[in-house]
Write a structure and sequence with these properties.
alpha/beta; 4-stranded mixed beta sheet; 17 strands
Length: 378
């Protein structure tokens, strides 16, 4: 028997982040106390044990399946609570957001962002940034962390990724996921970079975590190209090679024409009137993701890299798990409350990473990120 619990609700107990095994068992203990009046607690040194008074319930199993599904299975539970093999299933149905913050706002990251998204080029350049996220990994190991390869930022600055340095950063930081090398709008170069990195570095990353008791970081590949067919080809290749996590980029030029006569295009026209390139980019990616839905659902984790329009978040299906974008922060830096800006600010985080922000900018960053979390199109 399996009870499905959506949006991280364990009966009446909502939780705001994806649970690890220990959290799942703690929720089970709360359930025992609330529903049955038993004084239940976790035996801290035995992850599969709950104590009720002087009795112990053994053979509890709590585990995560990827990053978006988790289970508790109860074996040999006390009479009246559950049958011998009752399973509770958690499904994450909310898209988690992250908006990259400059150094002076890093201390607000845990409160404002729903997971950690670390940019490699900043991790390499700024000791304070690096130490902050290493501390976050130690203090909050249950919180999802993704290490980005900074491909877009390198592209804008005309630089390239040093793969060996990136591999060392993966081992040093211990993220849940790391984004494999990609080249903007170039399918072939992306596939070559992805599989050459795995061929050279994946075994060393795996060895670094063997017998340490630590979770091995998992790769996430980016579907790149300049047509829908090329992105499909990448996704198919990744499935064939058993890559379990993928990301969709935001700035591929074919998106702008991919939304022609699409129902969501008309929805955007109704809301915004005349559509900009930013709108067309966003709508095009939504349409591609919907066209690729059956394939995307076969991956454990699907991430959206960046965004041209924050309203895009409202339109993606539940098979999209996370999105990162600096959009809310960039609007704040330029003095706009989000949705009053004339267009997406044409800046990258490097331009204000060390800037001493005004109180007004800090307030707008807070306001804009919270607005992004709760945004509705209609």
């Amino acid at each position: 028997m399996e009870q499905v619990v959506n949006d991280f609700q364990f009966r009446n107990y909502p939780i705001d982040k994806f649970p690890g095994p220990k959290q799942l068992l703690e929720l089970m203990a709360i359930e025992l106390q609330d529903q049955y009046g038993w004084n239940a607690e976790i035996i801290k040194d035995k992850i599969n044990t709950i104590r009720i008074g002087n009795r112990h319930i053994y053979n509890l199993r709590a585990y995560k399946n990827g990053y978006n599904i988790a289970y508790i299975t109860v074996l040999n539970a006390p009479c009246g609570f559950a049958n011998s093999k009752e399973k509770y299933k958690f499904i994450r149905e909310k898209m988690f957001i992250n908006s990259e913050l400059p150094l002076t706002m890093l201390q607000e990251n845990f409160r404002l962002n729903e997971y950690d998204f670390v940019l490699f080029h900043l991790y390499k350049q700024y000791p304070a940034y690096r130490e902050y996220y290493k501390r976050m990994r130690q203090e909050h190991p249950e919180r999802l962390m993704i290490l980005d390869n900074s491909a877009y930022e390198f592209f804008v600055k005309g630089e390239t990724l040093n793969q060996e340095e990136f591999a060392n950063a993966i081992i040093d930081l211990r993220p849940d996921l790391y984004i494999l090398p990609d080249v903007l709008m170039n399918k072939q170069a992306t596939l070559e970079g992805t599989f050459s990195f795995l061929a050279v570095h994946e075994i060393n990353i795996w060895k670094a975590f063997t017998n340490t008791g630590l979770k091995t970081p998992q790769p996430m590949a980016v579907a790149q190209g300049d047509s829908a067919d090329e992105l499909f080809d990448c996704l198919l290749k990744y499935r064939q090679e058993n890559i379990r996590n993928v990301a969709l980029p935001f700035h591929n030029s074919f998106y702008k024409k991919y939304d022609t006569e699409y129902i969501i295009t008309n929805l955007f026209k109704f809301k915004f009137g005349e559509l900009t390139d930013d709108h067309h980019y966003a709508i095009g990616r939504v349409k591609f993701a919907q066209d690729a839905k059956l394939l995307l659902k076969r991956f454990e984790h699907v991430h959206l890299l960046g965004s041209h329009c924050p309203y895009e978040k409202c339109l993606h299906g539940k098979y999209i798990h996370t999105i990162d974008t600096g959009y809310p922060v960039k609007c704040a830096i330029e003095g706009y409350e989000m949705f009053t800006e004339p267009a997406k600010p044409n800046i990258i985080i490097d331009e204000f990473m060390e800037t001493e922000l005004t109180d007004r900018q800090k307030q707008l960053i807070d306001t804009n990120i919270n607005a992004f979390k709760t945004i509705r199109l209609c």
